[in-house]
Amino acid sequence: MRPANVKAFPQPSSRVNGDLAVARRVFESAGEAVKTLSASLGAEFTRAVETLLAVKGRVIVSGIGKSGHIARKIAATLASTGTPAHFVHPSEASHGDLGEVTRQDAVIILSWRGESSELSDLIVHAKRFRIPLIGMGCNPESTLLKAADVALVLPKVREACPMGMAPTTSTTLMLVLGDALAVALMERRDFSTNEYRNLHPGGSLGRAMIRVCDLMHGPDELPLAQEGASLRQALTIMGKYKFGCIGLTDKKGALVGIITDGDLRRHMDRDLRQAKAADVMTRNPKTVRADLLAAEAIALMNEKKITQLFVFEAKGRSQKPAGILHIHDCLRAGLK
């Protein structure tokens, strides 16, 4: 909603068209620069990936000015995708934060021209203690890239601003190259969906990644009876749990049916005193795998208008239930 003190004025079409033309020019400039960067990548990129894979500590990412802002983002992306990383401000490094950079680490320094004086202490520290140094900039003859163990040379491009000075296209290239490193490291490590979820437990992303196995009740909480049991016996077991159902198994323990509150209501007109559990059960009930996303299980329950699902292990062919998931478990986890 527009703030009350800000009035909406109709904009002349010429002004709108002019703004859009500027935006498209910036997009085209960035797009062409990224294509040039892609074409220029070579073995140094793989050397950078292998250097980072070999790190036993953390990846320290640094830069000054706008490059520093991009360095922060790259460090955050690396950390959230399985590569422990941390941003160190170069000025703060000169006043004690060099203590955060150990011999077990690797350092990535971003600098377009590669000659920022604030970077010198960090560069010297890396070289003094033989800490792998990856430099990212456009000038291969710069102090930074000549000192780097791995030099990631960016193509020289014109900035998108009218003066050709404000960091725009150049920072886009740094950001894209940092993302490329993070994704390459993910794939080299076979970084899994589960690992990704573990690093993103909060918010809608974390909830979207929750799996059935994270919410289900395990084997010790399963309401089960053999299909040959009397209905009275089955109801006694069913009453000990809060799921509103009981699973029926054959002699091998395989699930063959389910009795729910709904099944009992549908048979209320019968004399059930001598009935067997199998007389009222629903055969071949809907089930889910333990590795299924909880959101998919909710979708199944909503589609079939049911409130619980028996769960089987993701691997193997065993038909013995390993758990049970109730819709209330999903709701408590914030899923809908």
Describe the structure.
Helix content is 43%, strand content 15%. It has 336 residues and is α/β, with parallel strands linked by helices. It has 2 domains: 20-191, Rossmann fold, CATH 3.40.50; 212-332, CBS-domain (Roll), CATH 3.10.580.10. The protein has a 5-stranded parallel sheet, with helices on both faces. Strands 6-7-8-9 form a 4-stranded mixed sheet. The longest helix is centred in the N-terminal third of the chain and has 28 residues, at 13-40. The protein is elongated, with a radius of gyration of 30 Å. The chain starts with 12 loop residues before the first helix and ends with a helix.
State the total count of DSSP E strands: 12
Q: CATH homologous superfamily name of the largest domain?
A: Glucose-6-phosphate isomerase like protein, domain 1
Task: Give a quick account of the main beta sheet: strands, pairing sense, barrel closure.
Answer: 5 strands, parallel
Which regions have little confidence, pLDDT < 50, spanning 5+ residues? none
**Secondary structure tally, helices:** 15
Give the ordered list of helices and strands: HHEHEHEHEHEHHHHEHEEHHEEHEEH
Order of the strands making up the biggest sheet: 2-1-3-4-5
> What's the CATH C level of the largest domain?
Alpha Beta
Radius of gyration: 30 Å
Instruction: State the helicity in percent bands.
Output: 40-55%
Overall tally of structural domains: 2
Mean pLDDT over all positions: 89
Helix/strand structural class: alpha/beta
Estimated share of beta-strand residues: 5-15%
Distance between the termini: 28 Å
